[in-house]
Amino acid sequence: MPVYHQQQTEAEAFEWPECEAPHPENLALASELCTALLQDTPTFATAITHFPSGWSSNDVLQVSIVFPTSERHFIVKLPRREASSPFISCEGEARRTRWAAAHGFGPKVLAIDGKSGGFAMERVEGQTLATLMNPQRLRQAVNLLRKIHNAAPEDWMLRFDPIAIVKEQLDRVKKVHTMNPEE
After folding, report:
1. With 0-12 CB in 10 A as exposed, 13-18 as middle and 19+ as buried, what is 102?
2. pLDDT at residue 24 above 70?
3. Closest CA to 85 of 45, 121, 122, 58
4. d(Cα 145, Cα 60) in Å, to the nearest integer?
5. pLDDT (0 to 100) of residue 120
6. Is residue 94 exposed (0-12), middle (13-18) or buried (19+ Cβ within 10 Å)?
7. Is the CB of residue 64 less than 8 Å from the CB of residue 47?
8. What is the mean pLDDT of residues 37-45?
9. According to the model, what pLDDT value does residue 83 have?
10. S-S: 54 plus which of 16, 48, 61, 100, CB 3.0-4.6 Å?
């Protein structure tokens, strides 16, 4: 149940949309990407968990491969549809994730699907840095941000321009008539 800001009524409060189920093709591709990483190791069973991601254009899946005495877990991101922007494509995210892993602050990208741009990465144990954890983890967050900003940039990196991204998204929404013109 969402927590509402004090000045909002329940009818006015923002709620994340329901997430569509992952595409069956993505379930099969996620399994293929991860089992290929294990090469000749016989697997006992494969389980896939879908993480609802609201309006995201990607399916986020955890693939667990169970052996008789152990398990391996991977996170796989696959596009639900062809991305028209490098900011929302899996391929761009895989590139950024690889860069972060090379600098010690992101999960390792283990496989990239050449056709879809989707990718499999190692699953990192732990909690995300949630708002409620900020007071307890402030020093850790500051050190991580310092590490990110001190890391050498790559040629492919662009200056982040949120205004340009919002304008691009609004143009896309207008083209498919999902928004009233006065909005």
Report:
1. middle
2. yes
3. 58
4. 25
5. 93
6. buried
7. yes
8. 72
9. 53
10. 16
